[in-house]
Amino acid sequence: MPQTQKSKVWYKEPWPWLLMAGPVIVVFAALYTFHLAQSNSADLVSDDYYKDGKHIDLQLHRDEEAFKRNIHAQVLVNPDKNAAKVLVSGNFNPQEPLNLVLMHPAKKAEDQTVKLQPAQSGVFSGNKAEYNAVFKPLPDTHHWYVRVEDAGGKWRVEDRWLVNQGYAVNLKPMEKLLSASAATQ
Question: Which helix (DSSP H) or strand (DSSP E) does residue 23 occupy?
Answer without folding.
Answer: helix 14-39
